[in-house]
Specification:
single chain, 120 residues, four-stranded antiparallel beta sheet, two-stranded parallel sheet, 3 helices
Length: 120
């Protein structure tokens, strides 16, 4: 299987909302590679997430992270996607406002960095 890269999101991120599975107990499904969590793809792509009807507080907090990010960058272009240190399991996206999202599909770790507010 190939390595998924967000070409569709590089082009259409700022005009089409694409929800991802937020269940961190499952991997794969819905076209997501078997070893990946959909939640990490949601973050990487600046997308929104589906929330299960029986979601617990931990799941809801994780969803809030994705939704807060989506609210911030929903209308921002994704301007860059890269493999961190040449590792296709560690990826970074950058959005037009300078927000960067790093994910590590093997460990489940992620980091979201936003630029400082500029007051003119």
């Amino acid at each position: 299987m190939g390595v998924p890269i967000p070409l569709f999101n590089l082009v259409y991120h700022d005009c089409i909302v694409i929800p991802w599975n937020s269940d961190f107990t499952r991997r794969g499904g819905w076209g997501i590679p078997a070893a990946d969590h959909g939640f990490l793809h949601a973050l990487l792509n600046g997308g929104t997430v589906y929330v299960g009807i029986e979601a617990d507080d931990t799941s809801l907090a994780r969803c809030r992270t994705a939704l807060d990010l989506h609210a911030r960058i929903a209308q921002q272009e994704m301007v860059r996607h890269e493999f961190v240190d040449g590792d296709n399991r560690r990826q970074r996206t950058t959005f037009a406002d300078g927000t960067q999202v790093d994910v590590h599909f093997d460990t489940g770790d992620y980091a979201i960095s936003t630029p400082k507010e500029v007051i003119l």
